[in-house]
Write a structure and sequence with these properties.
The protein is of the alpha+beta class. It contains nine helices and nine strands. Strands 1, 2, 3, 4, 5, 6, 7, 8 and 9 form a nine-stranded mixed beta sheet that branches. Helix 1 packs across helix 2, helix 4 runs antiparallel to helix 5 and helix 6 runs antiparallel to helix 9. It is globular, with a radius of gyration of 20 Å. One of its GO terms (biological process) is protein export from nucleus.
């Protein structure tokens, strides 16, 4: 059974080419997405795989099996998005972890330490570092969400809208979901010169002028809207080092290589609802 609502007729663009064989030819597929509560019987593998994608090369630093089990232990909070019915793997998910409530769990404590270290490494994240460095962990919701690369961003507003409803219901039941802040963990990337081009002496894409800092680009367009409502936001480097050719494995049919970055966005609790409404309007205007 679908959760409460479905997004009918959402269109996902695929890379299947037309008869001409041109890279510019695409087929459009009509896809009906359904929302479900996270369910231990079906969703362990799918959510863990999406968490590995979210944490990228640093996924190996964490006990993602335990984190997935914790997400599945709170099935009335958060959503999975599927296409082929309830018993299939999720194409996207959204959940959150109460860092104050679960700080004594070793795998959550490790995530908190990791986020504290990343926040302390950059002045843009100083409010996050301050919150996580106190003697007591404040009631922060760590928002975890990810989707497969071809899943349209239009699935995002319904997930967040349902999450806000679920938090309200949980509060009415005196459950521990009264938060001061939402810390959204995400990913961004910068473009880097391809090592393949250097090795093969291929024509190189000209570097953009206007400053020494590379432009941060977004995997998830909704992150740009969240940032308008944020106390602070910004990228951070992963701890796990990769060889020089790693960026070329993520080129995704473009001239430049890709360097993925972790990304944190801190939003005060009372501003989340307005941010979610703005995301819906923004995505509608882009469609």
């Amino acid at each position: 059974m679908g959760k409460r609502k479905s997004l009918n007729g959402a269109k996902a663009e695929t890379s299947q080419s037309g008869e001409s064989g041109s890279d510019e030819d695409f087929d459009m597929l009509d896809v009906e997405f359904e929302w479900f509560d996270p369910q231990p019987a079906y969703d362990f593998h799918g959510i863990k795989t999406l968490l590995q994608q979210l944490f990228d090369v640093d996924a190996q630093l964490f006990d993602l099996s335990a984190l997935t089990d914790l997400i599945l232990a709170q099935p009335l909070l958060g959503s999975t998005v599927k296409v082929d019915g309830n018993e299939t793997d999720a194409y996207a998910f959204l959940s959150l972890i109460n860092l104050q409530e679960h700080k004594d769990k070793s795998f959550v404590s490790k995530i908190i330490d990791y986020l504290r270290q990343k926040a302390a490494s950059s002045s843009v994240h100083s409010p996050i570092a301050e919150l996580l460095s106190g003697p007591d962990t404040p009631p922060i919701a760590l928002v975890l969400t990810e989707r497969l690369i071809n899943v349209p961003s239009e699935v995002t507003p319904p997930m967040y809208s349902m999450l806000l409803e679920e938090i309200q219901w949980a509060l009415e039941e005196k459950e521990p979901y009264h938060f001061s802040h939402y810390l959204i963990l995400s990913k961004t990337y910068t473009e880097v010169v391809s090592k393949l081009d250097e090795e093969d002496d291929r024509p190189k894409k000209k570097k953009k002028s206007g400053g020494s800092s590379p432009t941060v680009l977004y995997f998830h367009p909704e992150d740009e809207v969240f940032e308008r409502h944020a106390i602070c936001h910004g990228p951070y480097n992963y701890s796990t080092k990769q060889d020089e050719g790693h960026s070329d494995s993520k080129r995704a049919f473009q001239e430049m290589g890709i360097k993925p970055l972790g990304h944190m966005i801190l939003v005060e609790a009372e501003k989340l609802e307005e941010a979610v409404k703005d995301i819906a309007e923004y995505l509608k205007s882009q469609g």
